[in-house]
C-alpha cells in the first residue's frame, strides 16, 4: 500500500524552534523524528511539500487547482492521498476538491492539527496516522474503503463538503451538522458504508479546476440597510450570490428587499438561499416571509454549508460561463453528496 501525503501548509506542517520559539516549516526528516510510526508500518508513505507552504488564511482557488492537479499527476502511482492543510479554510478547500475531482476511486483525506507536530500534546500525530491508515484501507474486493474527498479530525471522518470549522481552541475543530460521520476511529476504525459515496465501475478520474470567483455572500441581520444590500447586489460583473437567511430560509418582508433581489436575478445573477443555522434545511414557502424570495427567483440551497455552496457556485460558473440555466439546475442538485435535496 502506497500513500502520498501532500503538505500545503498549516499548523500541522510547522515545528517550533527550541531557541527562538518561532514556528518554521517541517521537512520529512522532522516528521520521521516526531512521528516515526508513519514510516515504520507496512504502508509506504511519500511526502510532497508545496513550496512555499501556504498559511490557510492565504489560500486561493489557485491552490485548490494545484492540489487537484497534483493528485491527478500521481493518481496511478498511489493507493490514496492525504492532504495536510491549515484548519481555517480547510472546509473550503476540501469542499472545492470534492467538485473538482470527479470519478474518484481512491481516498483523498484532508487533515491538520490545532497544535504543531513537535508539541508534546499535539493532535497532529493521531490525525495524520489515522488519515494515512484510512487512505490505505481497502475492502475485501481490493477497493478503497472511502473513495471520496473527506476530512479527518479528532477521531471522526466526515464527508468533506459537509464540514465546517466550529472551534478555534478545542481539538474537535470540525463538525458535519447535517450529515453523520462516515467513519469513526477508536481501538478499531468503524466505517459506515451506507453513508459513503461509491463510484460506478466504469468511472475514471476527471479533473476540472476552472472557477469564477465573481460571487458574494449577503448575510441578513435585523436593521440591514437598503444601501448596503444594493451595494453588494449591484457589484459590477457579479455572477452569483449566497443569501444567508434566517431559520428555514426566511428574510425581511420589506418590499425594497424583494425589488433588489428580483432585479439582481433578472440581470442573470444566480442567487441561492442558505440558512444561517448550523443544522437544518431551507424550506422556502413554509413561512410567508420567504415567499418573496421564491417570487424573486431565488434558488434553494437546502442543507448545504456555506463553504460547499460558495465553492460549488464558483466551479460551476467557471465550467458553464455562458449557460446560466444549466448552473441553476445543478445548484439545486447534489453533485458530490453536498446536500439533501427534497
**Which structural class is indicated by helix and strand composition?**
alpha/beta
Total domain units: 2
Strands in their spatial order, largest beta sheet: 4-1-5-7-8-9-12-13
The total beta strand count reads 18
Q: How far apart are the first and last residues' alpha carbons, in Å?
A: 40 Å
- Silhouette: globular
CATH architecture type of the largest domain? 3-Layer(aba) Sandwich
Report the mean per-residue pLDDT as an integer.
Answer: 93
Topology as a string of helices (H) and strands (E): EEEHEHEHEEHEEEEEEEEHEHEHEHH
Radius of gyration using CA atoms only: 21 Å
CATH topology of the largest domain: Rossmann fold
Largest sheet: 8 strands, mixed
Just give the CATH class of the largest domain: Alpha Beta
Q: How many helical stretches?
A: 9
Strand portion: 15-25%
Query: By CATH's scheme, which homologous superfamily of the largest domain applies?
Result: L-asparaginase, N-terminal domain
Give an overview in words.
It is a single chain. The protein is of the alpha/beta class. The chain folds into two domains: 2-207, 3-Layer(aba) Sandwich (Rossmann fold), CATH 3.40.50; 215-331, Rossmann fold (3-Layer(aba) Sandwich). The protein has helices at residues 28-34, 61-74, 90-100, 124-136, 226-233, 255-266, 291-296, 306-319, 324-331; strands at 2-7, 14-16, 23-25, 44-49, 80-84, 101-102, 107-111, 149-153, 156-159, 164-165, 174-175, 183-185, 189-191, 206-207, 215-219, 240-245, 270-275, 299-300. β16 (240-245), α6 and β17 form a beta-alpha-beta unit. α2 (61-74) crosses α3, α3 (90-100) packs parallel to α8 (306-319) and α5 runs parallel beside α6. It is globular. The two termini are 40 Å apart.
